[in-house]
Amino acid sequence: MSILEIKNLSIEFGGLKAVDDFNLSLEEGEIIAIIGPNGAGKTTIFNMLTGIYAPTKGSIELNGESLLGLKPYQFAQKGIARTFQNIRLFAASTVIDNVKMAYTHQCKESFFECIFRTPKMVEEERKIDERAMDLLKAFDLESKADILAKNLPYGAQRRLEIVRALMLEPKILLLDEPVAGMITTELDDMAKMVRELRDKLGLTVILIEHHMNFVMPIADRIKVLNFGETIAEGSADEVQNNPDVIAAYLGGGYKNVITNA
Amino acid sequence: MKPLIRKLLPILGVVALYYLIMYLKSIKVMNPYHIQVLMFAGVNIMMTISLNIVNGFTGQFCIGHAGFMSLGAYGASIVTTMIFGGFSVAPNLRIPVFLLGLLAGGLVAGAVGLLIGIPTLKLKGDYLAIVTLAFGEIVRATLRLIEPIGAARGMIGIPPYTNFAWVLFFVVLTLIVARNFIYSKHGRACIAIRDNEIAADAMGINTTKYKIISFVFAAFIAGVAGGLYAHIMSFIQPDTFSFVKSSDLLVYLYAGGTGSLTGSVLGGLLLTVLPEALRTFGNLVNWRIVIYAVTLVIIMLYRPLGLCGGKELPLLKINRKHLYEKSIFSKKSVHPSETPN
């Protein structure tokens, strides 16, 4: 059975169809990439999958349970975690606090235990701290645990966003342009990391990316979007040789534009 | 042994401070007026910490905080003066009645905080500010209309239960409780909302819930502070808690530095004592408000984040390392580096 089932997902802003009939059936442990030119509606899909936008039409089901109508924080609590295209860390907090903040929902500290700092609460804090530290270690950030997130170098901030999302114990991880602005060596590291997330943690990953040499080797399937419509779908090779995809990326001349319209 | 010392040292410090002040009073270096200024400073520190929880740590903007203070002041005074009859209370019952009054004050303010927090905390920034401003004025205007509690004339005959020891006790208690709140799941959620609300939402934090928790918690503290204030003055009237009072609190907070408990203590203490201290300099008396204002301008020019913006005394922090220290109460907890593999 598929873990995430998206059917006919559409959203309109006024008269503009930003996403039209997007379908996706995701198996556990798959890595899916959504690619497409700027403005194709990729991030809009992520925003619908995390509850920020309510779709005009269509359904989103996680393990058979409909998520429509839930608030963004409920999407996260159900197990869909995300990173952002433009990094959104808790900049004025330390690296480890950033990670611990994502554990708010699972954390079992009551208000009165907190303000009186009972031994039970301290013990719980210690467990969260160790959890966060383990994750930071796995992503080479443990030495930076106590510095402010805003003082991290760019690549480390991107990694921290992923660590923070993992602290939610998600079933599905959405990565919005994880390698934007990174250099080639960092690109390879990130590719290795995404693959490890799947292999070691059994995560299902959906990623949006422009860097083809990042996407092609790691994605099991690729969906190509243009103007909100899915124009191609399949393995890296299939997609690369699809004439519509080439037209969308390189421009298909005026004839194509007219026939598409 | 070390954590024991670390925990006892601040308590010893507070006790020492109390006896120092009492000694200074007994040798007539400090007179009752000085003590009263210090008590007001204590109340203002509590109010500033309360405001800091909402404005500094949760990133909301409340500018009607005096409203909660007046609710607390009236709530507490109604219990001690109207229900238990003020001065006619038996001497051995005075402390329980006083504490009950403070609790009532806190609860009234907290309940009203919950009531107005639920519909308003969805608003952001300036819009929330305007609503809280209106809230403060509504409380004041309403209290002016209620005849049994003296309406605009105010309430008199409140027994002066509050003494310096009580103020000191409640300031320290507020500091401990506020610090514990900030270094917990709740505090982290509030700070996450302040730093980036969209990301907080995406990380499974129910932002509205934690905003309301911080608002109600702050309102409760403000209510207790109001109760203490009423029992210093023996007299309260609605106009004491006007927008001017709220803006004073904002000044204490921002001059001290938001997001810092140390800053709230410093801001509340310095800016309460300074205008009073300037009274003692003969010719300067008339200029004291000008000097006060200029001091503020200078503070903000040289310390744009306030005196302690974002910084904290180690005493008011909970260091991550402390989590791994042997607790006084339980035998568990060792640092991961010390665990045998």
Automatic annotation (TrEMBL), chain A:
<dbReference type="InterPro" id="IPR027417">
    <property type="entry name" value="P-loop_NTPase"/>
</dbReference>
<dbReference type="InterPro" id="IPR051120">
    <property type="entry name" value="ABC_AA/LPS_Transport"/>
</dbReference>
<dbReference type="GO" id="GO:1903805">
    <property type="term" value="P:L-valine import across plasma membrane"/>
</dbReference>
<feature type="domain" description="ABC transporter">
    <location>
        <begin position="4"/>
        <end position="252"/>
    </location>
</feature>
<dbReference type="Pfam" id="PF12399">
    <property type="entry name" value="BCA_ABC_TP_C"/>
</dbReference>
<keyword id="KW-0813">Transport</keyword>
<dbReference type="GO" id="GO:1903806">
    <property type="term" value="P:L-isoleucine import across plasma membrane"/>
</dbReference>
<dbReference type="InterPro" id="IPR032823">
    <property type="entry name" value="BCA_ABC_TP_C"/>
</dbReference>
<dbReference type="InterPro" id="IPR003593">
    <property type="entry name" value="AAA+_ATPase"/>
</dbReference>
<dbReference type="GO" id="GO:0005524">
    <property type="term" value="F:ATP binding"/>
</dbReference>
<keyword id="KW-0547">Nucleotide-binding</keyword>
<dbReference type="GO" id="GO:0015192">
    <property type="term" value="F:L-phenylalanine transmembrane transporter activity"/>
</dbReference>
<keyword id="KW-0067">ATP-binding</keyword>
<dbReference type="GO" id="GO:0005886">
    <property type="term" value="C:plasma membrane"/>
</dbReference>
<dbReference type="Pfam" id="PF00005">
    <property type="entry name" value="ABC_tran"/>
</dbReference>
<dbReference type="GO" id="GO:0042941">
    <property type="term" value="P:D-alanine transmembrane transport"/>
</dbReference>
<dbReference type="GO" id="GO:0015188">
    <property type="term" value="F:L-isoleucine transmembrane transporter activity"/>
</dbReference>
<dbReference type="GO" id="GO:0016887">
    <property type="term" value="F:ATP hydrolysis activity"/>
</dbReference>
<protein>
    <submittedName>
        <fullName>ABC-type branched-chain amino acid transport system, ATPase component</fullName>
    </submittedName>
</protein>
<dbReference type="InterPro" id="IPR003439">
    <property type="entry name" value="ABC_transporter-like_ATP-bd"/>
</dbReference>
<dbReference type="GO" id="GO:0005304">
    <property type="term" value="F:L-valine transmembrane transporter activity"/>
</dbReference>
<dbReference type="GO" id="GO:0015808">
    <property type="term" value="P:L-alanine transport"/>
</dbReference>
TrEMBL record, chain B:
<feature type="transmembrane region" description="Helical">
    <location>
        <begin position="127"/>
        <end position="146"/>
    </location>
</feature>
<keyword id="KW-0812">Transmembrane</keyword>
<dbReference type="GO" id="GO:0015658">
    <property type="term" value="F:branched-chain amino acid transmembrane transporter activity"/>
</dbReference>
<feature type="transmembrane region" description="Helical">
    <location>
        <begin position="33"/>
        <end position="54"/>
    </location>
</feature>
<feature type="transmembrane region" description="Helical">
    <location>
        <begin position="7"/>
        <end position="27"/>
    </location>
</feature>
<keyword id="KW-1133">Transmembrane helix</keyword>
<feature type="transmembrane region" description="Helical">
    <location>
        <begin position="158"/>
        <end position="178"/>
    </location>
</feature>
<keyword id="KW-1003">Cell membrane</keyword>
<dbReference type="InterPro" id="IPR043428">
    <property type="entry name" value="LivM-like"/>
</dbReference>
<feature type="transmembrane region" description="Helical">
    <location>
        <begin position="252"/>
        <end position="273"/>
    </location>
</feature>
<dbReference type="Pfam" id="PF02653">
    <property type="entry name" value="BPD_transp_2"/>
</dbReference>
<feature type="transmembrane region" description="Helical">
    <location>
        <begin position="95"/>
        <end position="115"/>
    </location>
</feature>
<feature type="transmembrane region" description="Helical">
    <location>
        <begin position="212"/>
        <end position="232"/>
    </location>
</feature>
<feature type="transmembrane region" description="Helical">
    <location>
        <begin position="285"/>
        <end position="305"/>
    </location>
</feature>
<dbReference type="InterPro" id="IPR001851">
    <property type="entry name" value="ABC_transp_permease"/>
</dbReference>
<feature type="transmembrane region" description="Helical">
    <location>
        <begin position="66"/>
        <end position="89"/>
    </location>
</feature>
<keyword id="KW-0472">Membrane</keyword>
<protein>
    <submittedName>
        <fullName>ABC-type branched-chain amino acid transport system, permease component</fullName>
    </submittedName>
</protein>
<dbReference type="GO" id="GO:0005886">
    <property type="term" value="C:plasma membrane"/>
</dbReference>
